[in-house]
Design goal:
Elements: H1 2-33, H2 48-59, H3 61-82, H4 94-170, H5 178-193, E1 197-204, E2 207-214, E3 224-226, H6 231-238, E4 242-243, E5 259-265, E6 270-279, H7 287-317, E7 318-320, E8 325-326, H8 328-345, E9 349-355, H9 364-381, E10 387-390, E11 396-402, H10 406-427, E12 436-443, H11 452-460, E13 463-466
Antiparallel strand pairs: 1-2, 1-6, 2-3, 4-5, 5-6, 7-8, 9-11, 9-12, 10-11, 12-13
Helix pairs in contact: 1-2, 1-3, 2-3, 2-4, 3-4, 4-5, 5-7, 9-10
């Protein structure tokens, strides 16, 4: 700050120094090289104009005023010295004051003109500086908003990625296989919460037994944990997710587990097991992570309950374990549902009847061989939405083909017959009674009022095919 003030002060005084220096320099040249004309009185235009013009145009009014006065004084001094026996009346003549007054007037006029330009220039500079300041402020705000936008975008992308990861991982819980649910739950914790180590213990009486675990390295997990000796017991007793923070004042703080959430079934009335988190990043260990663990445990409990109900229902409906064929009672109910759907939405629907006449008198071993071959062929030839049922007639099966026209059903029958023929020639050469297969096809047509018509039509279409050679 002091240096800036010094520079400004030096600039203000420089017009005086430069004026005096210029006049002295011209006078020195005059006295050295042009002694016969002191003061350049006979030279026109006078050399002092150089100092006046330069100073007034550079420094404005003050510079023009000072240079005009000083040039006039220098000129008056030399004129006074050039007149011998000068008298007072000589100072009253126009020749004495004419050119000095002209120096003064020109210096003032040029200086004032320049001063106006300098003022305009100063105003423009101030306006420019104001715009610069405003621009700097706007740029600062813009930079701040840009950083905020980047952070917000990154958070949005992170949330979208997290939600996408959670959704994709949660698809594993839609399975109806209990064995697939528990690993899917651990995958959700790993992907969504960056959990490094987690496990699932199932409650067996008064103890917890390890079922599934996700580990890094060779960390040890006990196979059995008695009730009352870990964070799992607290979570199971309170039926809510808990963490080590919830029992920080407890003298018997459990080691190893940092979050434990109960897996509940029967409308959150019965504890099936617990979901544990043993290791995760410190910054991720928040109250939100505890809530997420509880939410995932609830999903797990609902999925386990659905899978259990499905397994129990399937056990009641499936009458043949080899072919996974459903019961005849379920066939009648399901056929009516598909029939109503086809009639309402004008969809195709076909029914296939397959009969093995020789199965009724076959040995258990022969029957199992035929059904195993039949089951293997079905898995390769039919779709997942096609459903197999046992008929009320011995050795017969029904196959419902939703959204399939009669022509397509006949193609399926031909493929089944061809595959069964190729397999039976090799497998059942010693028992010719087992290689006979009867097949019939019927399809829904407009005007049908009862699914029993389909069953009647398919029986009438039955054709016997003997594969013996």
């Amino acid at each position: 700050m002091f240096k800036v003030n010094t520079e400004a002060k030096r600039y203000k005084l420089s017009k005086y120094y430069e004026t005096l220096l210029g006049l002295v320099a011209i006078t020195a040249v005059n006295l050295i090289f042009y002694r016969h004309d002191p003061g350049f009185l006979s030279v026109s235009p006078h050399p002092y104009w150089i100092v006046i013009l330069l100073t007034s145009t550079r420094y404005g009014f003050a510079g023009g005023l000072f240079s005009g006065i000083m040039a006039g004084l220098f000129l008056i001094v030399f004129k006074s010295l050039s007149i011998p026996d000068i008298e007072l009346v000589d100072f009253k003549t126009l020749s004495m004051w004419g050119k000095p007054i002209l120096f003064f007037i020109v210096g003032v006029v040029l200086g004032e003109t320049r001063q106006l330009h300098l003022k305009e220039y100063s105003d423009v500079c101030e306006e420019r500086d104001a715009y610069h300041d405003a621009f700097d402020k706007v740029k600062t705000k813009y930079d701040i908003l840009s950083e905020a936008k980047q952070e917000l975008d990154s958070k949005i992308l992170s949330q979208e990625s997290t939600l996408g990861t959670l959704y994709e991982a949660a698809q594993g819980l839609r399975t109806l296989s209990i064995d697939s649910i528990y690993p899917a739950v651990l995958d959700i914790l790993r992907e969504f919460m960056d959990v490094e180590e987690c496990s699932i213990y199932l409650l067996d009486g008064t103890e917890f037994r390890l079922d599934t675990a996700l580990r890094h390295g060779k960390s040890y997990l006990p196979e059995v944990v008695p009730w009352g000796e870990s964070l799992m017991s607290i979570a199971a007793a309170q039926k809510r997710a808990v963490s080590i923070r919830d029992i920080a004042s407890n003298e018997s703080m459990p080691s190893g587990i940092i979050i434990s959430a109960p897996i509940l079934a029967d409308n959150h009335q019965h504890v099936v097991g617990v979901l544990n988190v043993e290791k995760m990043p410190f910054l991720k260990f928040t109250s939100d992570s505890v809530r997420v663990a509880g939410l995932v445990a609830d999903w797990c409990g609902s999925s386990v309950e659905n899978a259990t109900v499905f397994a129990e229902t399937k056990d009641k409906l499936i009458a043949d374990e080899i072919t996974d064929a459903y019961t005849f009672d379920y066939f009648l109910r399901r056929l009516r549902e598909e029939f109503v759907r086809a009639r309402r939405y004008e969809l195709d629907l076909s029914l296939i009847m397959l009969e093995f006449p020789g199965l009724s008198n076959a040995s258990d071993e022969g029957r199992d061989e035929v059904l195993m071959a039949f089951s293997m062929i079905l898995k390769n030839q039919v779709r997942e939405i096609d459903i197999l049922f046992i008929s009320d007639e011995p050795g017969a099966f029904y196959l419902i083909l939703p959204t399939t026209p009669t022509a397509g059903a006949r193609v399926v029958v031909n493929n089944l017959l061809s595959s069964f023929k190729a397999l039976s020639v090799m497998a059942f050469e010693t028992d010719q009674n087992l290689v006979e297969l009867r097949a019939g096809v019927a399809g829904y047509t407009l005007g049908m009022e009862d699914p029993a018509e389909l069953v009647k039509n398919v029986k009438e279409d039955m054709v016997s095919v003997l594969f013996a050679e």
